[in-house]
Amino acid sequence: MNYISVDTISKTVNGNFLFKDISFGIHEGDKLALIGVNGCGKSTLLRILAGEEEVDSGVISQNRECRFSTLRQKSTFSDKDTILEHILSGDSPLMSTVREYEFLVDQMAIEENDEIHKRFEHIMSEMDRLECWELESRVSSLLSELGISDKRAHMSTLSGGMLKKVALVQSLVSDGNLIFLDEPTNHLDIDTIIWLQDYLQKSTRAIVIVTHDRYFLDRICTGILEIDNQRLYKYDGNYSEFLKQKALRESIEKREQNRLNTVLRREFEWLKRGPRARTGKDKGRKNRIVDMMDQQTSEEQQSAEFSVSDRRLGKKVLDLINISKSFGDNQVIKSFNYKFRKGERIGIVGPNGSGKSTLLNVLTEKLESDSGSVTKGLHTVFGYFDQMTEKMPDQMKVLEYLKETAEIVKLDDGSSHTPAQLLERFLFPKSLHFTALSDLSGGEKRRLYLIKIILTNPNFLILDEPTNDFDIQTLSLIEDFLLDYGGCLLVVSHDRYFLDRIVDFLFIFDGDGGIKGFPGNYSQYREYLLSEEKVQKENLRKNKPSTKVKTEKERKASFKEKKEFESLEGEIVSLEEEKIELEGLFSNSGMNPEQIADAHIRYNTIEKDLPEKMERWEYLAELMD
Length: 625
Hints:
Elements: E1 2-13, E2 16-27, E3 31-35, H1 42-49, E4 57-62, E5 68-71, H2 83-87, H3 93-110, H4 114-129, H5 135-145, H6 160-172, E6 178-182, H7 190-202, E7 206-210, H8 214-220, E8 223-228, E9 231-236, H9 239-272, H10 282-295, E10 318-327, E11 330-340, E12 345-349, H11 356-363, E13 371-376, E14 382-385, H12 398-403, E15 409-410, E16 416-417, H13 419-425, H14 442-455, E17 460-464, H15 472-483, E18 488-492, H16 496-502, E19 505-509, E20 515-519, H17 522-554, H18 559-585, H19 593-623
Parallel strand pairs: 3-7, 3-8, 5-6, 6-7, 12-18, 12-19, 14-17, 17-18
Antiparallel strand pairs: 1-2, 1-4, 8-9, 10-11, 10-13, 15-16, 19-20
């Protein structure tokens, strides 16, 4: 089934084309990635597909069966809303029905009249028709899997990572058969990204996603849509297949450009001869030359590999001795020791809120540790690319902004480059050099901020979530730069591909203040965890009989525990039967509103109590004779 058809649409911003006359379709089961450089119009195209923005020309047709939900880069919410209220605030029929049901239940607790009764009877039938009864349990299940236990916590109390998780749940529990996801992995830790990756992989819904996470694209996508130079190219397959197909396309285009350039050289020679020396068909030939010039592609965004020259590092780089840090009762860094050495390339991974950014602020002395000492080497110079881009003067031009830091930068090969040349190497064409900073996109500002840090020529580079807001082309360029970087490198990132390419050692934050080291990149660490898990399961399987014998000898059930065991058996059977009975009642339209409300509350209680009683019963069963 075709959900959406896009026919020769165009979109301009400030008089410039983002994309021109592009066409494609979205079909049932498609999992499509939308990629391209920052500012090419990816998020704009998502908003257009979702009906939130108009096109300048062209037609978009939507199938009546198509229902979609959207995850935006930045979600909006009311501070007064709880997590559950926010998730149910969507405008889909499912969400609207559940909201109406919850409202009427509250109203009937205050007053009853014929109008409310009629509305309640209608909403009950809608709840049955749309199968809304499972919605709350689905929400609870997803929140639980994402580590959010309190559905009634207010949105204003949540961290950036938690807000992203709640926004994810809101988009995933909708009844849409098509999901638009704009940078869903930003601000998520790696474990959550892997969870989302697996969830979407198993989903039967169609997906259109904007993300820079290349492993994510490889695992999920069945097709790639690339916006390149105002045009759209569609490739079948995942990200790895896209790279192969794009290389082939660019090879063909390069041969065509070489042929075109050869023809143009001959034509320019003909033009130089003068009117008398040329044949009589001047006008037609001149027009053909203009057409061929229009077909030439611009090369002003091509980049080359380079690295800045090494600022000398002394024998001592940076020593952390017994440092710790707490915020109130929350200890985010327990006693930690490490001596950094020249040339180290260290990645930092761990769950959101585990203290990764805190460590960076402590070692750069932006934040004072509670104990221990931080001793920096005499020649150590930090370059700190943090998560918050510094405030930029809006009216200042791009080139002026860099010239404030340095007029020249020396490269490893001995040559020198100006800020203008450095801008071009980092994908800022000359056409942007005199653009006001206020006119840059968020990703372009982040890239410019990184160039400014590089211009200071640091020998200890610290990057906190450098992959957020960057497109894949920029990430590849940064990775190439970092591979040639000769100083110390310390990077916090949730991008597995990025970590695999540039680091060879990891600091692992466990979420309880502990930090452990691992020699290797992230994929090697995951393989190690899987192998350890396999060994533990195998040992558990081998030792289970002997463990049971030992347990029986050392500890047997007390009289009180035996009585509890017998009681639990009956309680569990009773709860299971009651649960089945309640599920049957939900489809009974003859029940009165108070009964339905009470049954709904009781069902949720059983859903919570039953697993706990089962777990206790299994434990006591091990102690019984």
